[in-house]
C-alpha cells in the first residue's frame, strides 16, 4: 500500500518498520488527565481516514499492534486496570476504537467493551471547537467494577470528546488514570 511492493499484509513489514515506529506525545486535558499519543496526526492521517472503509480494519490492527499493544506489554501498575474505548459502536462491519482497545489486553490491562456510548452520534471530524462544544456527545457509562480506567480513542484534536468522557466517568465515581490515542492533531 505504501511502497507498492508485493506483500501478504496491507502494509509490508519494511514499510511498517520504516514509517510506523511510534513516538510518545503527551498533553494534559480536563482535571490534569494525561493523554498519551503515539503518532503525529499529519504523519498517519491517510491511514486514519481508512477507518470508514473495508481496509480500515487491517490498517487499524497494524497501527494498534505497533503502538498500543507495545505500550500494554510495558505497562506496570499495582493492580489490574480496565481499558474502555470511546463509543465502540460497530460501523462498516467493525469498530475502530474496539480494535485499539483489544490491543491493550495484557497482564495489567483488561479491555472492556460496550461500556461508554454516545447518545448523540454526531461526528466531530473536521468540525470546529465551537461545534464540538455546542453538540456534546452525551455519553452513557456502564461499568461494574471498581478498577481504574484507561480511556482509548483514535485521535485527539481539541480534547472535547475525551473531556466529555472523563466527566461522565467521574460522575459514576470511577477513576480515569489517563487516555491513550493513536494520534494527536495538535502536534506539528
UniProtKB/TrEMBL annotation:
Q: Which InterPro entries match?
A: ComF/GntX_DNA_util-trans (IPR051910), PRTase-CE (IPR056920), PRTase-like (IPR029057), PRTase_dom (IPR000836)
Q: Which one Pfam family would you cite for this protein?
A: PRTase-CE
The family assignment reads:
Belongs to the ComF/GntX family.
Organism, by scientific name, is Sulfurimonas gotlandica (strain DSM 19862 / JCM 16533 / GD1)
In Swiss-Prot or TrEMBL terms, this protein is called Transformation system protein
**Domain named PRTase-CE: which ranges?**
27-174
The record's section on SUPFAM superfamilies has: PRTase-like (SSF53271)
Alphabetized Gene3D superfamilies for the sequence: 3.40.50.2020
